[in-house]
Amino acid sequence: MTKLADILRRVIDTHGPLDIGQFMALCAAHRSAGYYHRRETIGLAGDFVTAPEISQTFGELLGLALAAFWQECGRPCPIALVELGPGRGTLMADLWRATAGVRGFHEAVRGVHLVEISGSLRQLQQQVLRGLPLVFHEDIAELPRDLPLYLVANEFFDSLPMCQFVRTARGLQERRVTTDASGRLAFVLDPRLLPSSTLVSVGLDAEKVEEGAVVEIAPAREAMIADLAARIAVQGDLAYVIDYGFDRPQWGDTLQAVARHRRVEPLAMPGEADLSSHVDFAALLRATAGSGIRRYGPLAQGIFLRRLGIETRLAALLARATPEQAAELRSGVARLTEPEAMGTLFRVLAMVGPRGGVPPGFEKEEAAG
């Protein structure tokens, strides 16, 4: 068992079973034993890889998309360039390099704002992004409120806490984490019943949810996207949210844990495995309705990247690549765009402020209702 498992057992012994959201939050951010306070989490030496680690084209195209939108908005100055959960700093490094030739864009940036809770990752980001005007934040509440935001959140929302409920013969019950007779962490159902209106609130027909089905609700995600939308409505200008998930209400257990590039049981390695779950983009849209912004998507990542010109960028890189580099470049782009890889599972949501038009990568008719 892990160090955090011992801590969790003591918490459960004192306060009773944890809901799934509490469990995820402690696993991620516990100050002495949480996952994101470890040194190596992302990349080949870590537990998983994200799109920026797979291909440089990902960060480059996002950067050029932000810069093109900035030009369309009249080149506002100053602006805040923001990334939520910047990982190893790879995306921002590629974004910054790709936009170096956009006249005035770097000069307009009043701080590269990184929302990052991990001290070890901050150190790595400082090394990778040396020379950039970095500003670190613990929470989005600390982001500047007097500047237009040009924001990217890639694989950020999937790691935020969510709760699980199970439709049983008795009704709807919350799934929690407790300890069994041997002291191991185990799932348990809260005996208290919840009203069926809980399902209706997330867009599900209570009559159609099967017995035994797991329903996930993520208030933390909805609160954060609502906060971002409120900021974009007042400050402008554009936010791209990219993650894996689904675009219509559904049920199913999507809680997953990954360690050393392999799936493990979610309760097996608390604090030493990455915990995440699929993002309900329909819930994000509900949370941002009436915020005063325009929303586009969610759009399949493969379509989005092709529209931004990933194939053109790949051709330019192949023109000066060695055979080994060319094979790696083609493989990376295929992994990002092909339906059987990340092209369909991952989706993109754009939020646009009052002075912006259709964001790069989207079409006018893809505005959310």
Detailed description of the structure:
With about 375 residues, this protein is an alpha/beta fold. About 35% of the residues lie in helices and about 25% in strands. It has a single domain, classed as Rossmann fold. It has 13 helices and 16 strands. Strands 2, 3, 4, 5, 10, 14, 15 and 16 form an eight-stranded mixed sheet that branches. Strands 1, 6, 7, 8 and 9 form a five-stranded antiparallel sheet that branches. Strands 12-11-13 form a three-stranded antiparallel sheet. Helix 9 packs across helix 10 and helix 12 runs antiparallel to helix 13. The model has no long low-confidence stretch (mean pLDDT about 95).
Classify the beta-strand content into a percent band.
15-25%
Kindly state the mean pLDDT as a whole number? 93
Give the overall shape, derived from the CA principal axes. globular
The CATH architecture can be given as: 3-Layer(aba) Sandwich
Name of the CATH first level = Alpha Beta
How many H/I helical runs?
Answer: 13
The parts where pLDDT drops under 50 for at least 5 residues are none
Which structural class do the helices and strands define?
Answer: alpha/beta
The ordered H/E elements are HEHHHEHHEHEEEEEHEHEEEEEHEHHHE
Helical percentage: 25-40%
Question: What's this entry about, in short?
Answer:
With 369 residues, the chain is an alpha/beta fold.
Keywords:
13 helices, alpha/beta, 35% helix, Rossmann fold, 24% strand, 16 strands, 369 residues
